[in-house]
Amino acid sequence: MISPPAAPGRSAPAVKPAHAQRGIGRETPSAIPAAIPPHPGPLPPGEREVISPPPHRAPGAHAQAPYPGEPRNAGVFFSIYFLMTGLHALHVIGGMGAISWLLVRAGRGHFSRLYYGPVDYVGLYWHLVDMVWIYLFPLLYLIH
């Protein structure tokens, strides 16, 4: 938008950009980060810059996202994600150990038509771990 020339002795009228006139690009006050003051420059010799700790949050402020655009409670989600994935990994490692134990015993001829219990139990354990992962995978990875 081109503003008209100013009359002699008067300043040109202030014209807002087109996107500001329509309200585009406006953010809510909570989404605007605090202004960072400019760096004061080099310190005199022998002095150190003191960095103050972040301000204390009010009770209940943990539910708010610390940065604009970050989902609320992202830390809780990733804590549960890490815990459940790690717990599943431990069970998979245990299952691999049990299958290795079965392979050693089967190589020695310990199992027959009359004695096959450990093979059944390890197979059931392995499939249970697999079924848990079938439900855990969509729950943690695919649901927004």
Explain this structure.
This protein has 3 helices and no strands. It is mainly α. It has a domain of 58 residues. Helix 2 runs antiparallel to helix 3. 0% of the residues are buried. The mean pLDDT is 75.
Structural class: mainly alpha
Note the total helix count.
3
In total, how many beta strands?
0
The proportion of residues forming helix, as a percent range, comes to: 40-55%
- Could you tell me how far the N terminus lies from the C terminus, measured between alpha carbons in angstroms? 42 Å
Low-confidence stretches: none
User: Roughly what fraction of the amino acids lie in strands?
Assistant: under 5%
Written as H for each helix and E for each strand, in order along the chain, the element string is HHH
Net shape: elongated
How large is the radius of gyration?
Answer: 32 Å
Integer average pLDDT: 75
Let me know the largest β-sheet: none
